[in-house]
Amino acid sequence: MVAPANNSVNVVADALSLYDFGGGRKTPEEEEMEEEEEAPTHINTKRSLQFLVISVDKLSAKYTGDGQHANDVGAFQGNRPAPVRRILYYFEIYIKDRGNKGTISIGFTDEHFKTSRQPGWDPNTYGYHGDDGYLYHGHGRGDPFGPTFHTGDTVGAGINYASQEFFFTVNGKLVGSRHKDVKCPLYPSVGLHSPNERVDINFGQNPFVFNIEALAQEEREKLQGEIETLHLPFSISHSVVRSYLLHYGYQETLQAFDAASGSMVPPVILTTQENGDKMLEEECYALEHRRKLRQLIRNGEINGALANLETWYPHLLKDETLMIKFLLDCQQFIEYIKAGSLEAAVIHAQENLASLLGISLYQSLLQDCIALLAYEHPRESPVGHLLMLGQREAVADAVNSAILATDPALSSSRRSPQSSLEKLLRQLTACHIERWLLNGGQGEACRLHRLLRGKEGPW
Amino acid sequence: MIPSLSMSMGTISLPFLRSLKLLTNHHDDSWEIGGDVIDGGLTFVTAAWASTARGIDAFFASVDKLDVITLREHLYEEEDFPCKQKMSSSKKVYTREEWQKKLNEVKIRKADMNKLVMNFFVTEGYVEAAEKFHKETGTEPDMDLGTITDRMEVRKAIQCGNVQDAIERVNDLNPEILDTNPQLFFHLQQQRLIELIRSGKVEEALEFAQEELAPRGEENHAFLQELERTVALLAFEDTSSCPVGELLDVSQRQKTASELNAAILTSQSHEKDPKLPGLLKMLIWVQNQLDEKVSYPRINDFATAALEDSVS
């Protein structure tokens, strides 16, 4: 036979996976990307905090040391590192009292930060210092950066994951930003270093003085603008849609689409003739058969579909794996249940399905099907999705794929036919995940699924 | 040995290093450790500032099997660094098989693809296709199909070459659409000129170009260029081989129809663009972004969606 048995299993398994029969499986990367991260909520008092008095709500601090030397700083971190799977992270302090010298600093530090040192003095720490207005990063010399801090000021520090920069604000105004060159977890941090210095910290429990939403929006629009200016030949979407319809054998839609767009030929063929013609030929393969079978399965006429398959593609029902036969038999069983013919369902199962019970590939679908018998109201049961239209569609897609795989014109490298739309979306997702991982898992994740469902804007 | 290497490096301190790339060549069998592993594996401890050189030496000693070591993107301070450096930029390379494996792990839901296609039909005003698609797939349209009918009539008119009819219909819907959108109006007039040329009405075409289009071209240089390009059609007897022949193609009608369709949608405060082209642009963007760091099989021809070979 043209397509070896193994291959047809792959094809069908692919088709089945489109539906996630039951459980929504995700790759570990996808799960990681969608996992919600917890943000810092208060000062971490579990670390030893010297020279400080922390309020009961852990949101205010006062310096109690003498501020005599470089190792009696009273510094603290948030209780968690700044979350990274977002476009921005930001927090603010309110200077209740600048104390004797105003040696207050705000910034970010890694987990090895020593709380007896100012943020910014040591490697992997970054601090904007209020006494001189300098930005310190990694050692005791800073660079001129912004204004000094005074009693009554609100000072903010943030991380822009899109541009990989730190940014700082004073009284709601952006002061400046600096390249972020580490990818390790960073804690929001504050250092106090002269008598009477007092600060309140706002981890977002109160509205920020700085308009952080506007900055986030600006970043999103910047990216959006960058994407929109890219050139995409006009006819591409059209041709992707058209080939999707051909691939799945949605012939009526195809005809309506062609009629409305005034062309029987995808316009793209005019420009990329060789590829286009080949694509067209491939996707038109057995179109009428595929349409007919899809229609039968969608109408629940499984026996009709089986009879036609028997005539047109007998080998598909007889290959070693019996995958297509199995799916159709399961569907027939489901149709009996739907019609309330339990007896017919049981007889059908005994004759056609029982022998397959040991085969692991079929196990889960088969068990779910049989489970339908256990419920008085199968539609409301945990396996009720089997009775939905989507299940018929899935079976129809599997049959469609299996037939496409028998196309002798198909080169051996393309034995697992997917529509070009699916290939493009897979590539899009894989590229996004790869880029996101390369970025240390920082920044907003691409959630294709949600994007398609229209629950959020393009980003 | 590589995984244990990165673990053993956990305590080595290299405060001057931003990221470290190690290339090893052992018995002609070359492999590399990515910068990220190192980045994450190394922790920088203040106390070890002075002993950087020793730290590096100890590190090298602990990996005695490494023959060639390359440091990349090394210092961000002027401090003297006791290591030889070679600026080698080696990208991570995915073979077709490795990449295909990643692609296979991605789950794309059929229902999502159906929604995407439905959104395309509805937004672009293909109401009959949307109805059939609903029937064939059970996918619900994301707006009331009734409201598409007007837009569809307009699209039909343009795609049949009946531009004047389309203009009247749009003005019936909302005269502001064309009043406030000179570029769209120009493109419609241009399409009208194209249709006149197509049907061989040379005199009428010339008259129309001079009276209706030329004055607009004076206001806007881009319009003038477009006008000249269009009028050039008249100079060719066999337009199929002339350089501006694409203007006579059906895709030009579709382009004009889509522009008009988007303007109507905007006036009705709907999303004017279907999601599909946006996603495809996003694919162009993310592939370009990824190119800077990784070599992997790209998709360049979106029509066939074939994977190219990765360039190493």
UniProtKB/TrEMBL annotation, chain A:
Limits of the CTLH domain: 286-344
Residue span, B30.2/SPRY domain: 21-208
SUPFAM superfamilies: Concanavalin A-like lectins/glucanases (SSF49899)
Pfam families: CTLH, SPRY
Top-rank lineage group of the source organism: Eukaryota
Protein name: Ran-binding protein 10
Source organism of the structure: Adiantum capillus-veneris
Classification lineage: Eukaryota, Viridiplantae, Streptophyta, Embryophyta, Tracheophyta
UniProtKB/TrEMBL annotation, chain B:
Pfam families linked to this entry: CTLH, LisH
Domain of life from the UniProt record: Eukaryota
Ranges for domain CTLH: 147-204
InterPro entries linked to this entry: CRA_dom (IPR013144), CTLH/CRA (IPR024964), CTLH_C (IPR006595), LisH (IPR006594), Ubq-SigPath_Reg (IPR050618)
Protein name per Swiss-Prot or TrEMBL: CTLH domain-containing protein
